[in-house]
Amino acid sequence: MKLLVTGGAGYVGSVNAAHLVEAGHEVVVLDDLSTGHADAVPEGARFVEGELSEAAGPLLAEGFDGVLHFAARSLVGESVEKPELYWDNNVVRTFRLLEAMREHGTPRLVFSSTAAVYGEPEQVPIPEDAPTRPTNPYGASKLAIDTMITSYATAYGLAAVSLRYFNVAGAHGRFGERHAVETHLIPIVLQVAAGTRESVAIYGDDWDTPDGTCLRDYIHVDDLADAHLLALQKAEPGRHGIYNLGSGRGFSVLEVVEACRTVTGHPIPARVAPRRAGDPAVLIASSGRATTELGWNPTRTALETMVGDAWRFAQDRLPV
Ligand code: UFG
């Protein structure tokens, strides 16, 4: 297929673009490099540097079989402080993308949605039909887009899939996570192991969980990419499929730190800090729908596998 990958110079986008190229698809990456890196675009993909709502239309006029839409702002804290960035970058620009797809008859869309659409869960594991009550503008912006996509599938026959990621981890060879502002647990802990950070702060050890620290459902970015390839194949005209992507089990913050100690051999000093505003105690996916309907089975579910791949990626990037 000829595929447009928006945000294909970012973490999840670049790993997916690499998998798509490896699977033999013709890939065009569109990224404005606001948070992505030009050298993260895989060999074999064409790279267009440009702003989504301006560049997507002229590109799609060439004729594409589908779009994988990763381009977005994705920091929860930033979304609370500067919500306008999220309504503009995520919602307004995705609306322009959908309009460009409609104008040029692009038949398929796979969209990066998030567990953040559910907010504080009432039940865990979280099924796709759980109430969607996002607790921050980031989650709200992704939920607004999911709603928009459903309406385009119904009205215009778009074949659409939203994949709601839980906590993405790991790396794919030279493609991995390198944010200017790092807020995610595993890369922060690995910075301590790499010597660029002194210690890790554990945001609360008095949660109602077995060891008092928050539980999250970590999913390897390669397993995520497998789901995107399946979603492309299984997308049906006029239907918007929504799927949670997680491994179905929770790891605590302390378990993550311990796995990082095992993988890196570094003692990784940790200190307890106050709870971070907006963190739910437990986020675990029910991914049964993706297994049943897409035939997806995550296989890199061991914490050591995810941390090990992220560590190899981080080490390759350290100055020698
Ligand atoms: N944590 C720490 N110390 C840190 C960083 C994180 O203790 O320095 C804890 C957090 O409190 C949380 C866990 O580690 O309990 C994981 O935190 P991350 O920031 O890595 O990930 P989140 O669970 O906050 O974020 C994920 C997705 C977001 C999504 C959010 C929904 O990465 O995209 O879930 O709540 F919006």
TrEMBL record:
<dbReference type="Pfam" id="PF01370">
    <property type="entry name" value="Epimerase"/>
</dbReference>
<feature type="domain" description="NAD-dependent epimerase/dehydratase">
    <location>
        <begin position="4"/>
        <end position="246"/>
    </location>
</feature>
<comment type="pathway">
    <text>Carbohydrate metabolism; galactose metabolism.</text>
</comment>
<dbReference type="GO" id="GO:0003978">
    <property type="term" value="F:UDP-glucose 4-epimerase activity"/>
</dbReference>
<dbReference type="InterPro" id="IPR001509">
    <property type="entry name" value="Epimerase_deHydtase"/>
</dbReference>
<protein>
    <recommendedName>
        <fullName>UDP-glucose 4-epimerase</fullName>
        <ecNumber>5.1.3.2</ecNumber>
    </recommendedName>
</protein>
<keyword id="KW-0413">Isomerase</keyword>
<dbReference type="InterPro" id="IPR020904">
    <property type="entry name" value="Sc_DH/Rdtase_CS"/>
</dbReference>
<comment type="similarity">
    <text>Belongs to the NAD(P)-dependent epimerase/dehydratase family.</text>
</comment>
<keyword id="KW-0119">Carbohydrate metabolism</keyword>
<keyword id="KW-0520">NAD</keyword>
<dbReference type="InterPro" id="IPR036291">
    <property type="entry name" value="NAD(P)-bd_dom_sf"/>
</dbReference>
<dbReference type="InterPro" id="IPR005886">
    <property type="entry name" value="UDP_G4E"/>
</dbReference>
<dbReference type="GO" id="GO:0033499">
    <property type="term" value="P:galactose catabolic process via UDP-galactose, Leloir pathway"/>
</dbReference>
